[in-house]
Design goal:
186 residues; alpha/beta; Rossmann fold; 6-stranded parallel beta sheet; binds magnesium ion
């Protein structure tokens, strides 16, 4: 598989609590900062409808797991502790809005060869160890980049691309936002 392949439309899926949702973070949950990183909580901004979407999706999926590349730490632009604080505050906000995140995996490595850096599948493998009940054929990755789609492809998950339609990577569905995806799942 390569980036830029045709989108194939999938039919209706029956999702229940045996399913697992994998979420990319930047560009899906919060606003991506172009050519920069979200380095502290002040720079973190939830995308429109994301909190509501996670709340809705929490009632449908058995597990919600975040998998995020955070190379800013490896580059020394921010500290791992800053990332942990951001994730704690993000989880708090999600909880206050009746959503739940079961785990957050992040990869701070610089090298594209690193096992944990998407599109490599290290973070997915870690999730499978921590949550042995996960069924990959009953898992969906939602991401906004090609590396998310390849990550999902390698793990045999369903793939949902968040994007405005200007670019298209190989995905099973494409939606404008996590919120739009959550409306479809409902
Ligand atoms: Mg992203």
């Amino acid at each position: 598989m390569h980036c830029g392949a045709q989108i194939k439309k999938m039919g209706y899926l029956e999702i229940d609590n045996t399913w697992t949702l994998f979420l990319d973070r930047d560009g899906v949950i919060n606003e991506k900062r172009e050519n920069d990183y979200v380095k502290n909580w002040n720079e973190f901004s939830f995308l429109n409808g994301a909190l509501q979407a996670i709340s809705t999706l929490s009632n449908i999926f058995g597990r919600i797991i975040i998998v995020t590349n955070q190379r800013g730490v490896g580059k020394g632009v921010m500290k791992e502790g800053d990332l942990v604080i951001i994730h704690n505050k993000m989880s708090q906000e999600i909880k206050l809005n009746f959503g739940k995140i079961d785990a957050i995996y992040y990869c701070t490595e610089l090298s594209d060869d690193s096992d944990c850096r998407k599109p490599n599948i290290g973070m997915g493998e870690k999730a499978l160890i921590d949550f042995p009940e996960i069924e990959l054929t009953k898992s969906i990755i939602v991401g906004d980049s090609c590396s998310d789609m390849i990550f999902g492809e390698r793990l045999n998950m369903k793939k949902v691309l968040i994007g405005n339609g200007e670019y298209k990577f190989d995905s099973d569905w494409q939606f404008e936002s996590l919120y739009a995806f959550s409306l479809m799942i409902l």
